[in-house]
């Protein structure tokens, strides 16, 4: 069963408001951040948790029966509340994507909110508060940046175009990392969600994401697809449907690129 357009619009509206509230709050706090270690390689701040709470509270006002998956649960665990009622809808939240930047006072981070129905993304919002950029898409609709249509375009990999590389590629570095670096400019802005949004807007011709969690990509994948990009795993296989009830933070492999570049990257990476 597909959701009606009106229901999708209400979900989108709520996602936009919640993302803006959280993003503005994070910007107010960025110069006063105290970070702690979440695990050996990852920082977390009070603002991450506060922003997630702001988002969840706002969504609950409009959709008390929906489910939530958020990055910031108890230490070592994700935040999860199963949906009540039908149809079951999950909100997948990354309150600050780019915490490492944020924790160091670098205002390159986003708020990412993806909404899923029957295991597939139906609404995605990525908000970049530093530039007041709201990327958004609804299943079956166009991708937008601040209300205007964006498209992934068809630029090829070239010395003048950029490919996102994000991140944790292991040691030794796979061969294809060198292939990308030698063919194009490579970029890692430190927020996966923003890199997917940049693929949607054509600023990146593609982005390769290594072991993201669902909340890193939940919104960006729909926005990139709605903009005409192809989004798959590294072998070119579809990412969805995904079992949200059973999702406990399993890492994924994600490749998003415009139609010209995607098959080339799959040939390098998926081989
Ligand atoms: C991180 C960012 C980063 C990516 C990491 C993610 P967080 O998310 O998306 O770009 O390389 O793998 O964990 O922890 O800042 O929300
Ligand atoms: Ca993240
Ligand atoms: Ca985060
Ligand atoms: Ca994190």
TrEMBL record:
GO terms for molecular function: inositol monophosphate 1-phosphatase activity; metal ion binding. Mg(2+) binds at residues 71, 94, 96-97, 216. GO terms for biological process: inositol metabolic process; phosphatidylinositol phosphate biosynthetic process; signal transduction. This is Inositol monophosphatase. Gene3D superfamilies: 3.40.190.80, Fructose-1,6-Bisphosphatase, subunit A, domain 1. Its cofactor is Mg(2+). CDD domains: IMPase_like. It comes from Anaerobaca lacustris. Pfam families: Inositol_P. PANTHER family: INOSITOL MONOPHOSPHATASE, INOSITOL-1-MONOPHOSPHATASE-RELATED. InterPro entries: Inositol_monoP_metal-BS (IPR020583), Inositol_monophosphatase-like (IPR000760), Inositol_monophosphatase_CS (IPR020550). The keyword Transferase does not apply. Keywords: Hydrolase, Magnesium, Metal-binding. It comes from the Bacteria.
């Amino acid at each position: 069963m597909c959701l009606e357009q009106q229901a999708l619009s209400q979900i989108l509206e709520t996602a936009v408001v919640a993302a803006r509230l959280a993003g503005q709050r994070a910007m107010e706090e960025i110069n006063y951040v105290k970070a702690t270690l979440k695990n050996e390689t990852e920082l977390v701040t009070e603002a991450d948790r506060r922003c997630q709470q702001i988002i969840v509270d706002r969504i609950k006002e409009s959709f008390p029966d929906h489910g939530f998956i958020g990055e910031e649960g108890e230490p070592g665990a994700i935040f999860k509340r199963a949906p009540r009622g039908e149809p079951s809808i999950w909100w997948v939240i990354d309150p600050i994507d780019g915490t490492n930047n944020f924790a160091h006072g670098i205002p390159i981070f986003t708020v990412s909110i993806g909404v899923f129905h029957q295991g597939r993304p139906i609404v995605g919002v990525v908000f970049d508060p530093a530039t007041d950029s709201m990327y958004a898409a609804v299943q079956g609709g166009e991708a937008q940046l601040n209300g205007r249509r964006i498209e992934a375009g068809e630029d090829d990999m070239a010395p003048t175009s950029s490919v996102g590389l994000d991140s944790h590629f292991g040691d030794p570095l796979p061969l294809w990392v060198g292939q990308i670096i030698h063919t194009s400019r490579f970029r890692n802005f430190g927020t996966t969600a923003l890199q997917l949004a940049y693929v949607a807007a054509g600023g990146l011709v593609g982005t390769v994401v290594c072991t993201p969690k669902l909340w890193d990509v939940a919104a960006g994948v729909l926005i990139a697809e709605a903009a005409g990009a192809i989004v798959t795993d590294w072998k070119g296989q579809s990412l969805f449907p995904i079992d949200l009830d059973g999702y406990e933070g399993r890492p994924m492999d994600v490749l998003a690129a415009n139609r010209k570049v995607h098959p080339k990257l799959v040939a390098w990476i998926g081989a």
